[in-house]
Every structure is written in C-alpha cells, then in structure tokens.
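=== Structural record ===
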Amino acid sequence: MTPTMRSARLVGIRQMRIDGVPVPRPGPDEILVRIEACGVCATDSRKYEIGVNDGHYPFNPGHEWLGTVAEVGSAVDSFHQGDRVYGDTYGGYADYATIPVTPEAWSRGPMPIPTDLDVRRAIFIEPLADCIHAVRDQARLRPGQRLVVIAAGVMGIKIIADAHALGCDVLVVEPLVARREMACRFGASAAVTQDGWADAARDWAGPGGIDAVILTIGNPDLVMPCVRALRPGGRLVLFAGFGNRAETVVDLNDIHYREIEIIGSEWIGTPPNQRRHRYDEALALLSDAALPFEDLVTSTCDFATLERALVARQSFMGFKTMFQPESAP
C-alpha cells in the first residue's frame, strides 16, 4: 500500500479541506521533508478569503516551513536523511513536502539550518528575508537615515528589526499598545498612534525629514498621506498586497515636483528581482539572541484548527501563528 499523509488544501473561497493523499516520492533532484512547522502567513489568509491567483484548486498555501529530510532523490548528494532544512515552496500545511535541491525561478531551494535553532525563530527565515529586501533593496536605506513604518504587525516588526540593525532611526505608527511596545523592543525609537501621525512623524524627523516610509498594510487610503509625509526625494515602499482594493487616487504633481519614489516590495524570490543572499542575512539576524523573535509566535495550530487560524489572522490580534502537524488542538 502507498503511504498516505494529511494535507490541508484550499478547495474554494473560504473553503479548506484536510485530505488524505499519498506521501510524495522525491524526484531525482528533490528531497522529501517531514514537516516540523509552518508559519501562517497573511498571504495564505488572503488566498483563503479572496481566492488563489497563482495556482489551481485544490491548493496547499503553506510556504514558510521547516523540517527534517526523510528521503533524498537518486541524484542528490548535498543533503542527507536527518538534515534540518527550511523550505519556501507551497505545500507546507502537510505531514511531508518535497522541494528541488537546485534553486528554481520561484524558490531558493532547501536551506540547511542549525538543529538547535528554536523553531519559533526558524519559521521566520523567508518572511524576514522579504523584510530585509524591503529595507535594503527597495527603500535603499543607509545608516543614520529616518524610516517610518506603518503598522507593527509581525512583518512591520521584522522590518523595524532590520532597519535598526542597519543603523537607521525608526518611528512606527500603530494603534495597538502591545504592538507599539513590541516595536520598541525590536529597535523603534518612537511609536505613535494613527491619529495625527504624519505631523508627529515630521516633528520626530526634524529638519532632515523622513527618508522612507514602508506601508505594511494594504490600505490604499494611506498611500497619499505617506507620500506627503516624505521629504523631497523620499521613497514610499508598498510592502503589503492590496487584495481587492487595488486602486487609489494619487497627486501626480506632488510626486513629480518633490521627486518622490513609489516602489513595490513583494517576495524575495520574485523573478527577475531575486536576491537570495537575503535568506542568509535573515538566518544571521534570527541567531541574534538579543532580539526576541520567539515572542512573535503568539499562537499555534494544527490540522484541526488551521482554518480557524486563517480566519483569525484577519482580526490582527496577536502576531504570528505557527502550524505544527503534531500539535494538540
């Protein structure tokens, strides 16, 4: 008999099913990994809420996973059974996943990780690499510059952590007290609520002005306020996807005469803009014991409670939920 495993798969909008499917066999250049954990991502929640646009149903959206190599393909000599690895391909909400050992257009390929790295830190490798990409490649920040981060969710916190590590001064705009406090633990020098935030941010920045704003929530109504908060020549990074609210009105004269840059920042692996070395930088930052990344994991789920976690993700309560196949309901 062919061994089977559990796989959590979207089968329609707001519909998830736990299926019993055959355990995949690795191809010649693939490895089979037994899943230890997978981060529950805002992208997964958005696919649950509004549909899948980069795949076909049934669809397993988990893409921040890690585990132990269970089997290697016939042509693989760079990984061995028992190795601990991180993977960034879809399929992480399952007992097992396969991944090619050679980087492909949409994947870095499996990344060896230390066996003693806390799982609550390890799940952040790919999303933290995305945040480093936003700070260093898209915002093009330099030490001493001033950054405003809009919203201190789990991605905003990681953006703050890297900008602080780079030597930037960071202000965060966040309505929730607990999130403002967490932002300061990760390096924000100031935290304000959303009321009158632009004036407060300009006062904080002083005569030099705000060099960059990173918008981490998909609210198009915030785009022009962010543009107007910037100094001449400043950069607005649109870090969040806007889902089904993808249009807004912008003042082109403001952008033109003050030479404002607006740039997107998505997944680090997006062709042709891959910068895969950011994964290694993310692992190094996650190894910094001074930064409490494990505290960002505020809940866990398993197969029985994963769909509930995807729904709860929309409430913006807590920070990160971690899926674990073997955890108790």
Summary: The CA atoms of residues 188 and 229 lie 18 Å apart. Residues 125-138 form the longest helix (14 residues).
